[in-house]
Amino acid sequence: MTAEIIAVGSELLTPQRVDTNSLFLTDQLNGLGVEVVTKSVIGDDLNRLADAVRRAVSRSEIVILCGGLGPTEDDLTRDAVAAALDRKLIYHPEITEVLEQRFAQLKRKMVEVNKRQAFLIEGAEMLPNERGTAPGQWIAESDAHVMLLPGPPHEMKAMFTRHCLPRLARIVPRQVIRTLVLRVAGMPESDLDQLIAPVYKKYDNPATTILAAAGDIQIHLRARCSTEGEAAALLVEVGWPIELLLGERIYSRNGQPLEEVVGEMLRERHSTLSVAESCTGGLLGERITSVAGSSAYFLGGFITYASRMKVEWLGVPEDIIARCGAVSKETAEAMAMGARRRTGSTYALAITGVAGPDAGGEKAPVGTVYVGLADATGCSVLHRQFIGDRTRIRQFATQMALDMLRRRIAL
Amino acid sequence: MTAEIIAVGSELLTPQRVDTNSLFLTDQLNGLGVEVVTKSVIGDDLNRLADAVRRAVSRSEIVILCGGLGPTEDDLTRDAVAAALDRKLIYHPEITEVLEQRFAQLKRKMVEVNKRQAFLIEGAEMLPNERGTAPGQWIAESDAHVMLLPGPPHEMKAMFTRHCLPRLARIVPRQVIRTLVLRVAGMPESDLDQLIAPVYKKYDNPATTILAAAGDIQIHLRARCSTEGEAAALLVEVGWPIELLLGERIYSRNGQPLEEVVGEMLRERHSTLSVAESCTGGLLGERITSVAGSSAYFLGGFITYASRMKVEWLGVPEDIIARCGAVSKETAEAMAMGARRRTGSTYALAITGVAGPDAGGEKAPVGTVYVGLADATGCSVLHRQFIGDRTRIRQFATQMALDMLRRRIAL
User: I need a labelling partner for B285 at 20 to 30 A (CA). Which of A69, A405, B43, B176 fits?
Assistant: First the structure.
C-alpha cells in the first residue's frame, strides 16, 4: 500500500513556510508499514487541487489532504475533493449545531460563514475535531481511502491519531517497520560514510539514511518485515557491524540528543556540572538546560564574553591572556579550573574560540576552538579547527564540549 | 507566468527530511514576479516522475527539478524528463572530459558510472556546476522552460543564481515584487490579527502573510506591480495604517531579528549589557551573541541555575529567596542589580521563571516569568504568564527580556 499527502494553502507556497504536517503523517504511516510516494503543496486553486486529488486517487490507496477546511472562500478542499470524486456536497444541520456549541464554549459568536464547515462530501464519514472547529472527513472511493484533515498541526495530529489511525489499522495489511537510530559525535560525514558504506550498501532493506548536522550525525536504519522478529534480526545483522566500526564514537542508540545522554550520565553518578563560555555565549548552557530536570546536575555557568570577565569571574591570570591570547589552550584551562573552583561542581567545561565572521588572527583563525574540561584529577584541553559560519562553529564547539565530557565520564 | 518545483529523491519522503531548496527557489522566482503554484516531492520512481513532469509542463511556463542528477541508478531525473518530453538522451564526451578534470582536482578517481552524468537531453543546454560534479540542464519546450538542477543546496543555489536567473530575466515579463516585513514583539497573534485585519483584508495586492513564533510575529506585505513606484506606493498605502495601529510594538521594519535591533541600539549609544539567567539557562546570552560583532556591547553573563549561585555570584540575599522564592519579582530585581554591579554594564537583564514541565507551585506555576532590567536609574521588573512547552516558554522569556530593553533604550 502506498500513500500520497497533499498540503493545501497558498501560504505554504511562500518562501517562509514549509509543510511539516507531512513529516508527522509520514512517520505515522511508516509505522503502519505504508510508504509515502508523493507529497505535494497546492495553492488555493480549485482546478489544480481537484486535478491533484484525481491523480492521487488513481494510483495510491491512501490519500491525505491537510488544510483548506476553514470557513472562508479560500478554503476549497471540500469542493475540490467533491469535484474530483464526482460527488455532491451535502449540508448537515447537525454539524452546524455542534459548531454552535463549540463556539459557545469558546465564548465566541458563530457567524453565518462557518456553516460552510457543515458540508460533507456525499458518502463521507465526519471526523470530529476535538481541538478546533473544522470537522474532518473520511471517504472510501473504490480502492482508495481519502482523508480531509485540518491544517493547524495540533488539530491535525489529534484528529489523525484518534480517528484515522484506528481506521487505517483495519485496512492496511500487517507489516512491521522498525528503526534503529545511531548518533555519532565529532566525525566528518564523509569519513563516517566511507567507513560504514561497505556494510549498509549491501542492503536495500533496511534502508539507510544519514543525516548530518554540525558535529552530529544520525544514522537511521529502517527495516520493513512481516514480523517483529525478522525486523529485529535484520537491524542486528546490519546495525551490529556498524556499531563495531564506530565504537565509542556512538553516543546514543535510541535517538537521544547528546545533552540528554550526558545529563543522564551525570544524574546516575550524582555528579554536577558548571560551564564557562566565551565564543558560544550561552549556547552550551542553553543546550544543557534544554533537558527537563537538568537542575539536578547543572549548577550554572559564566558567559565571559569580555576578557575582563574571564579575569574577574574565573580568575584567569591576566598574563596568560596577554601572553597566550584569550583563545588559547592556557585560557581554556584556566577558565575550566576557575569555573569548577567557583561552583564546586564535579566537572567544569570551558569553551573559548573564534566564531567569526570577523576577528581571528594568525594565532587563532576563525573556527579555532579550545575546550577545557576540569575535574578532581586536573584539567585537559582539546583543540579543533572548524569550518563554517558563526552558527555552525558555535554548534560544533558545544557538541565537541559535550562529547568530551561524555567520554571522560564513560572512562 | 507561473512556476512549479519538483524535488526528486526518496530520502525527501522520510519523516526526517523536508525539501528546503524550494524555499530559496520560491524567493528567487518571486523576486522576478513569478508565483510558484505547485510544489511536489517525488521518490526515485521513473514513471511517477515522468508523469509529474508531463503535467507540470502542460500547465506552467517554468518547471524546476532539483535532485536525482547523481551518477547512480537511483538518479532518474535525466531519464524521466527525457521520457516526459519524448526526447532522446545524448552522450557528450566533452562533458566526460570536464568531469575527469573535476575529479582530478578533487584528487579522486572518476569511476565509469559517472559517465551517466555526461548525458544531456536532446536540445538541452548544459548548466555548469561550479560546486560539484553533476551538470545541470536547461530545456525550452514549446511554451515551457524546464530546468534540471542538482539536489545539494550549495550546488543548486550557485547554479541557479549564476546560470538560470539571467536566462529567466530575459524570458519573464518585467514585473516588480516588493515586500515589507514588520516584526512585532510580545503580542498574541489573535490580538494582532483582530487589530490589523480590517486594514489588510481589503487588499488582495499586497498579499499579507502573518507568521507567528513565541512572542514574535512577522507581518509580510508583498506587492506585485509593474513598476517600483507603484509597488512602493501600495506598500505605504497598506503598511502605514498597520504601522500606526501597532505603534511602538513594531521593533523592526526590515526583517531584522530583535537581538540585532537591540544590538544596534546599544552600539550606537556606546552602552553595554550583561545578563543573569535562571530558567533560560544561557538562551538569552546565546541570542545576543548570535549577532556578529556583539562583543562591542555584550560583556557577559551569569547562568545561575542553582539558587546558591544566585546568592554567591549575584549577591541575591538568601532571605529574599527564602521569603519570596527563586521565581519572584524580588529575586529578578536582585539578580539584575547584581549582574550590573558585578560587570559595570550600562544595562543588566535578569530572567527567572518556571520553564516546566515539572516543578512550579502555587506561587509560581509553569510558565511564570519575571524579567528584571537594571540601569543607572534603578531596576524595574515585569511579570508574565506564558503557555506552552519548555522550549516555547524559554523563547517567550528571552523575547520579553530583549523587548523590555528595546523599549527602555528607545525612551
Answer: A405
